[in-house]
TrEMBL record:
Residues 1-216 form the USP domain. It comes from the Eukaryota. GO terms for molecular function: cysteine-type deubiquitinase activity. It comes from Eurystomus gularis. Keywords: Hydrolase. InterPro entries: Papain-like_cys_pep_sf (IPR038765), Peptidase_C19 (IPR050164), Peptidase_C19_UCH (IPR001394), USP (IPR028889), USP_CS (IPR018200). This is UBP16 hydrolase.
């Protein structure tokens, strides 16, 4: 989808990113890096249809002439529609010569995460005036082992039904009530047929591979 935006507001977010001080090796740092403003120059210039038509004239066959105008541009990936369920997939491998190496670094993640600094200022399903888009953690997938072999386990929170989430999923209604605390419930560690109750601290210290959050606000 291509749309024309006011250059002054095209890269504005729902909450001020300048107030963020994302700690390295945290999920906030990962999101900040993923949604950073990028400059497209030199071989990464953007093909501009408007510039091409202005240069070649509207009556000329641009494709046959092969006269395309490329221009410097800015690119930023932001969330335009806040999802009911947020799934974050961490890239836990890196290139090491001709081989892939697993990244075992611990990435810090909170029980409640605010996506507002990563949402466009015109986020479609956020009530006007809201500067928070909050999510509560309810599931984590962890991998142990190497790139060649290993074992997947999961942490899941047993909790009561989230009526706001149901309204959002089934009816598309944005949550109105202000919820800022994580959904209450008991965490469990699941490994094949073994299920064991664990603390929230144990969950937050895990080496997350996949994170699952449900929307609060």
């Amino acid at each position: 989808e291509v749309s024309t935006e006011d250059p002054e507001t095209a890269f504005c977010t729902l909450a001020n990113r300048e107030d963020l001080n994302p700690e390295e090796s945290s999920i906030y740092h990962c999101l900040y890096q993923f949604t950073r403003n990028e400059k497209l120059t030199e071989t990464n210039k953007l093909l501009c249809d408007v510039c091409t038509q202005r240069h070649c004239g509207p009556k000329k066959d641009i494709k046959s002439e092969k006269k395309c105008v490329y221009t410097d541009a800015k690119k930023q990936m932001l969330i335009s529609l806040a999802p009911p369920v947020l799934t974050l997939h961490l890239k836990r491998f890196q290139q090491a010569g001709f081989n892939l190496r697993k990244v075992n670094r611990h990435i810090k993640f909170p029980e409640v995460i605010d996506l507002a600094p990563f949402c466009t200022a015109k986020c479609k399903n956020v009530a006007e005036g809201n500067t928070n888009v909050l999510y509560s953690l309810y599931g984590v997938v962890e991998h142990s082992g190497t790139m060649r072999s290993g074992h997947y386990t999961a942490y899941a929170k047993m909790r009561s039904m989230n009526n706001h989430l149901s309204d959002l999923v089934l009816r598309g209604q944005s949550p109105q009530a202000l919820e800022t605390e994580p959904v209450k419930g008991q965490w469990f560690h699941i490994s094949d047929t073994r299920v064991q109750a664990v603390s929230a601290a144990k969950v937050l210290s895990s080496q997350a591979y996949l994170l699952f959050y449900e929307r609060l606000l």
